[in-house]
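[job 4471] stage=fold_predict status=RUNNING
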Amino acid sequence: MYLTLLNGTGYAFSVDDYMELRTKHRLMGALVGTANTKGWSPNQSTLPVELTKFETQLILDEGIALLVNKSKTFSTSPTPKELAEYKADLKERLEGQADALKGEKLRETERYMDKILLGKRNKLLKQGLSTEAAALDGEDVLKEVADNFKFDLQNALMEVPCQHLSKHTAEIIPGPIVDTSCISFVKAP
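[job 4471] inference complete, writing C-alpha cells
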C-alpha cells in the first residue's frame, strides 16, 4: 500500500487501501474530498483520506504502507502525448455517459409509450391532422426521441479524486515524518 505525501502528512486515494486501514488497523483518518459542487460539506465528504501525522508515522513504523512523494511528477506539465491520451480517455468516458443516458431515455419512453402516443394523437387530432394521428406508431416516437437527444456536457458526471490511473513516478520517503523521541510516556499508578 502507498500513501501520498501532501502537506507533510499521508493521504490515501484508494478505496481498497482506506478500507484496509479502517477494518484491519482501525485507523480512521478524515475524508477531505468533496462530492458537492457548491462547496465543501462535512456530510458529503469523499476520498482522499487525510491521515494525521501520527497515524501516518504509525503506518510507516508498522510497515503497513510506504510514503511516496509525487510532487515532482505532478508539478511538471504533461507531455503532448500524455495530454492527448487524457483527452481521448475523457472523450470516451463522456461518450459512454451520453450513450447510457440516451439508452435510459429510450427505455423510459418505451415504458410510457401508450400515454405518449395517446397525447401525440390527441394533439394531432386537435390540429385537424387525422391521417397523421392514425399513422403515428411507437417506432416514430422512439426515432423522434433518439434524433432529438442532446447530451449537455454541463450535466456530465465528473470523477472524484481517486487512485492515480496513469503511470507516474514517485519518490519513496524513507525517514520519519514525526519526531517521537520527545514524547514521554507516563505509566498509570
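[job 4471] summary: The chain has two domains: 2-70, 80-155.
[job 4471] exit 0
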